[in-house]
Structures are given as C-alpha cells and as structure tokens.
Amino acid sequence: MTQPLFERLTVIGLGLIGSSLARRAMQDGSIAREVVAYDASPTVRTRVAELGIVHRVADTGQEAVQDADCVVLCVPVGAMAPSAAAIIPYMRTGAILTDVGSTKQSVIREIQPFLRPDLHFVPAHPIAGTEYSGPDAGFSTLFEGRWTLITPIEGGDPEPVAKVAALWQLCGAMTREMDAAHHDRALAIVSHLPHLLAFTICGTADDLEGESRNEVLQFAASGFRDFTRIAASDPTMWRDVFLNNREALLEMLARFTEDAQAMARAIRWGDEEFIVDRIERGRRIRRSLIEIKQA
Amino acid sequence: MTQPLFERLTVIGLGLIGSSLARRAMQDGSIAREVVAYDASPTVRTRVAELGIVHRVADTGQEAVQDADCVVLCVPVGAMAPSAAAIIPYMRTGAILTDVGSTKQSVIREIQPFLRPDLHFVPAHPIAGTEYSGPDAGFSTLFEGRWTLITPIEGGDPEPVAKVAALWQLCGAMTREMDAAHHDRALAIVSHLPHLLAFTICGTADDLEGESRNEVLQFAASGFRDFTRIAASDPTMWRDVFLNNREALLEMLARFTEDAQAMARAIRWGDEEFIVDRIERGRRIRRSLIEIKQA
Ligand SMILES: NC(=O)c1ccc[n+]([C@@H]2O[C@H](COP(=O)([O-])OP(=O)(O)OC[C@H]3O[C@@H](n4cnc5c(N)ncnc54)[C@H](OP(=O)(O)O)[C@@H]3O)[C@@H](O)[C@H]2O)c1
Ligand SMILES: NC(=O)c1ccc[n+]([C@@H]2O[C@H](COP(=O)([O-])OP(=O)(O)OC[C@H]3O[C@@H](n4cnc5c(N)ncnc54)[C@H](OP(=O)(O)O)[C@@H]3O)[C@@H](O)[C@H]2O)c1
C-alpha cells in the first residue's frame, strides 16, 4: 500500500460535515492511517463511538490533536475561534489546521490571533450539505462531484494548501482556490440569501391567522414546499453564518429587495414585458444549471 | 358498465393541465364517453392528435363544444375571457362550463359578462403542477392526492358543482369548496409569492457581473438550486397569474418584505434570539408538512 496523505487526521465537531468526512476517511485508506474525533458534546462523542465511524474518540480536544498531522474544524462558524484556541497549543509542529466553515473572512479573522508560526492554517469550505445535522446525518459520498473552495491566507506555504486540496479530492470533490472576500460574496448570493428568504417566507406563513396557516400546509405543493426543504436546516449553524457574513449578505438582500420592488411595480402597473423578461431569466438560469449538471 | 359522469367532455387548451386531464379521462372510462379537444395553437392540435390522448381534436372552439355536457377551460388565466366568449354561444343548454385557472376572482369577473342563464359556470383550480408546460408535459396521475379547490359563484346550482367535484375526484384529487377571494389570498402566499421570489432571485443572480454569475451556477448546490426549479415555469402563465391576483400578491409581498427587513435588522444588530426564532419556524413548518405528507 502507498503512503496515506496523513498519518493521523483529527476531526473536531462530528455533525453532518465532520461525520461525513470521518466516514469517507475510514472507507478510503489513502486519506489517513488513523482517524481521531472530538466533539464538545458528550452525547455526540458516545454516538460517534457507537457508530464506529472513527478509529478513536478522544475525551478532550487536547488529547484529540496530539500528534495529528492534520486537524479539521467542523464546528459551527461561531464556535471556530474558541475551539481553535483550545487545541492550537497542543498541536504538533508542522501540522495543518483547516476548517469547513461556510463563511471564510470571519473564520480567518477570528482564528488568526491564536495561530502559531510553526503551524499551517488552510481555510476551506466544502460546498455540500443537506438539511439534516448531527453525526447520524453524515454519509461518505456527501462531497462527491461537489466543489470545495480553499481560501489560502496571505503568506502561507503552498504545500499545506495542496495537501488540503488533496484531502477533499480524495473525498470526491473538485477543488478551487479563491480569495476569502470573493468566497463570502459568492456564497452570500448562492447560499446565504436563499436560506434567508426560505426562513423568512416560512415565518410570514407562520404569522397568518389560524385557517390560512393550515391552508399553507395543505396547499404547499403549489410552490411553497420547495422553500421549506432548505428552511429545515440547523438554527445554530445558520445563525452563525448570517452573523459572520453580514456585510455581503445584507448587500445581496438589498439588491434582491430592489429587484422585488421593481417586480411589484411592474405587477401594479401591468408592465407585461418587464414581468416576462424576469420570468425568462429564471428559465435561462435553470437551463444553464441543467447543462452543467448542477440542477 | 355504469353510466360515465359526462357524455362528452371538451378540453380547451391542451397544455400541462389540459393534457393531463385528457389523459386521465381517456384512461378512466367513468369520466366521459367521449373526450374532445381544442387548442388555439395548430401545432398543439397536431401534436395532441399524434399523441392520441383524446378521441377527437376539433378545428374550432365552436366545433369542440357542440353537444358537450362539460367544457373545461385550461388556457392561461389571461386567455380565459376571450376563449370563453368564443365558445359560450355554441354550448348546449344545461351544459357545465368550468376552468382550471390559478386565480379565481379575476376569472369569474371576466367570464361572467359572457355567461348565458341556461349554462352552469363552476370555477375550479386543481392545485397540482410541474415546471414544464405543453401537451407533452402532461401525465394522467398529476392530480392524484392533490387538492382541487372549487369556488362556486353566487346563486349557482349545487348539482353542477357536485359534478365538477366528482370530475376531479375521479382524477384522484381531494376537493374542497371555498370562496374565490379566500382562494386568491391563500394561493398568493403558498404559490404566487414563492414563484415571484424564485423569479426575482434568479434575476438578481443574472445581474451579477461575469465571474460571479458563473459561480452562481457552479455553486448552486448550496441552496440556490432549490429556487430555480420553480423559476423554470411558463412565462405566459405566470405573467397572467401575477397580473390577475395583483392585490393579494402585492399584499403578501409587502408582508414578506417587512419580515425580511426585520431579519436584516436582527442580523445587523446581532439579535441572535430573533434569528434563531425565525429559523426554528422554518423547521416547524417543514416538520408539519412531513407529518401531513405534503412535503
Ligand atoms: N450543513 C451544511 O450544509 C454545511 C455545508 C458546508 C459547510 N458547513 C459548515 O460546517 C460546519 C459544521 O456544520 P454541520 O452542518 O456539520 O453542523 P452540525 O451537524 O450541527 O455539527 C456541528 C457539531 O459541532 C459540535 N460543536 C459545537 N461547538 C463545538 C466546539 N466548540 N468544539 C467541538 N465541537 C463543537 C456540535 O455539538 P453540539 O451538538 O453540542 O452543538 C455538533 O456536534 C459549520 O461551520 C458549517 O458552517 C455546513
Ligand atoms: N402549470 C401549473 O402549475 C398550473 C397548476 C394549476 C392550474 N394552472 C392553470 O392551468 C391553466 C393552463 O396552464 P398550463 O400549465 O397547462 O399551461 P400551458 O402548458 O402553457 O398550456 C396552455 C395551452 O392553452 C393554449 N391556449 C392559449 N390561449 C388559448 C385560447 N384562447 N384558446 C385555446 N387555447 C389557448 C396554449 O396554446 P399556445 O401554446 O399557443 O399559447 C397552450 O397550449 C392556466 O390557467 C394556469 O393558471 C396551472
């Protein structure tokens, strides 16, 4: 057997993403010789041990990262800094610290103060997910055919960046390097704004009085339903994402609101051409997605 | 064999809905002895004949409705009045005229001037659909397990209403009577607003400059994609729906916009509790949908 990419891979936070990564690494010996896990929640630690999706579950972060050559933070974005702070002092010289957070500028900004010069920090974001969370929700093929974006920090070495790219490629992902600010703007429109709109329309519907609220549920097949799938996602994760990408997200929401107002005006004044043009764009985008097989 | 519900059922407009109804009626002899079709488009008429999904395709509306005991208008909402006006003079005394339009007050208001006292008009709306359109998109099981809402006009006979309900029940639908104004408000939130938001976010994304626009497509899996499916729907149909339910739709959009602004404020000021509360509602609604098997 050829040398695996890592000797010891440590996953911190065994939710949907962390447990999927662990499962993949256990399945594919070329990723790491040993997979170690730590989660702040004792319930999750017990469950991960039961599931047998890692070689070893550690009782503390300190114990988990000892002698690991790669540590992957898979906790909510708001928990990245404290969980990094708790383990960095115990990491081995030359080891790689990476993360999977859905926002990148905030994670870099908050982890940087705790970094050591003898460690390599490589921020990354696998763009894959479902509306479920927790260690039971993960599966080893989650990242297949999806993108993982890597947002290297300034002045970092290229070799650890290449190793993190290799890690995700071994998980079946395509990888791409990108500036963190650019990442946050792109994700604001493709992911964070759609989630915000989905949560909001569920709230608007939930506020309707008795009878109307029931009808929303009963007649959901006519469009509403498509919004509720993504609105079923984890509150802690999404609260953190919204708060940690607020500038880009609020800017995209402002653009969207302007566009919705323009549509409202066109409806009010019967501007058929404008309305049809807007609808045609939706169709075009859908067609492009189907062409590039992302639909 | 027992008596079918109708002797001759005429379907006007053989798109997704009309062709699905025709297919069902052809499959299930208890709906009608003969199924006749007419579409304004010669291409559609030729295609429907090729598909063999009706007994007979008529060359004119006049010919199609002759001797029919039930005529179903399945044209876009904006075409309901002209197509009703064109056929009503040739309908048989005592026949039922019904429609499938997604808005009900406007259809009733616009058809009423052309009605004859010896005909029965029963407005209805099968709440089922896909993002596809045209005669090839239809299928006989489209209405199964879905609701059809019937919005009887004031002073109408109960018997034709019962017959239209029976028609949709034979198509596998559950039926419910409802006031037209109530229908239009309910559909504004469950269907028309979600479509408006989906079209709008596609437009907002389409307006991004070069590189960012490509990224929207590539990273669509992270949420955006769920919005594009419903945004692929037919422009004529949706233009008509928006224009014909403008009051209720604009009111729901105003509520939604207020709610989105409240979310924006909470994100700007870091009001975690508010954000989590909103997200929790999304989850609750999703869970309710799963419970009542409409997810
Ligand atoms: N879900 C997606 O679609 C998706 C996609 C790409 C990236 N991401 C990113 O991936 C990360 C994890 O998301 P997820 O969906 O996997 O979340 P998840 O299923 O909720 O799992 C997160 C896990 O981390 C644990 N945790 C929280 N704080 C911790 C700490 N300080 N130290 C150690 N463990 C801690 C949580 O324990 P408790 O249950 O006790 O809180 C939970 O078990 C987030 O940064 C998210 O932004 C998510
Ligand atoms: N799609 C849905 O999700 C859905 C759900 C419930 C109810 N509805 C309602 O059902 C109706 C039909 O929708 P659809 O999705 O089936 O539309 P569609 O697939 O676009 O089909 C409409 C058909 O009607 C024809 N038509 C247009 N004007 C006509 C006229 N004056 N006389 C005869 N035929 C005419 C069209 O021909 P051309 O192609 O030449 O225009 C087309 O073949 C609409 O009122 C819609 O609101 C739709």
Written description of the protein model:
Chain A has 295 residues and is an alpha/beta fold. The first copy, chain A, has helices at residues 16-27, 42-51, 61-65, 80-87, 105-111, 158-170, 180-206, 210-218, 224-230, 235-244, 246-269, 272-291; strands at 6-12, 32-38, 56-57, 70-73, 96-99, 120-126, 147-150, 174-177. The first copy, chain A, folds into 2 domains: 6-178, Rossmann fold (3-Layer(aba) Sandwich); 182-291, 6-phosphogluconate dehydrogenase C-terminal fold (Orthogonal Bundle), CATH 1.10.3660.10. Helix content of chain A is 52%, strand content 13%. An 8-stranded mixed sheet of chain A has the order 3-2-1-4-5-6-7-8, sandwiched between helices. In chain A, α7 crosses α11. The first copy, chain A, is elongated and about 65 Å long. The mean pLDDT of chain A is 95. At the A-B interface, α7, α8, α9, α10 and α11 of A face α7, α8, α9, α10 and α11 of B.
Which spans of chain A of ≥5 residues are poorly predicted at pLDDT below 50?
Answer: none
Largest interface: A-B, 90 and 90 residues
**What does the oligomeric state look like here?**
homodimer
Q: Distance N terminus to C terminus of chain A?
A: 38 Å
InterPro entries (chains A, B): 6-PGluconate_DH-like_C_sf, NAD(P)-bd_dom_sf, PDH_C, PDH_N, Preph/Arog_dehydrog, Prephen_DH
Organism (chains A, B): Lichenicola cladoniae
Catalytic activity (chains A, B): prephenate + NAD(+) = 3-(4-hydroxyphenyl)pyruvate + CO2 + NADH
Pathway (chains A, B): Amino-acid biosynthesis; L-tyrosine biosynthesis; (4-hydroxyphenyl)pyruvate from prephenate (NAD(+) route): step 1/1
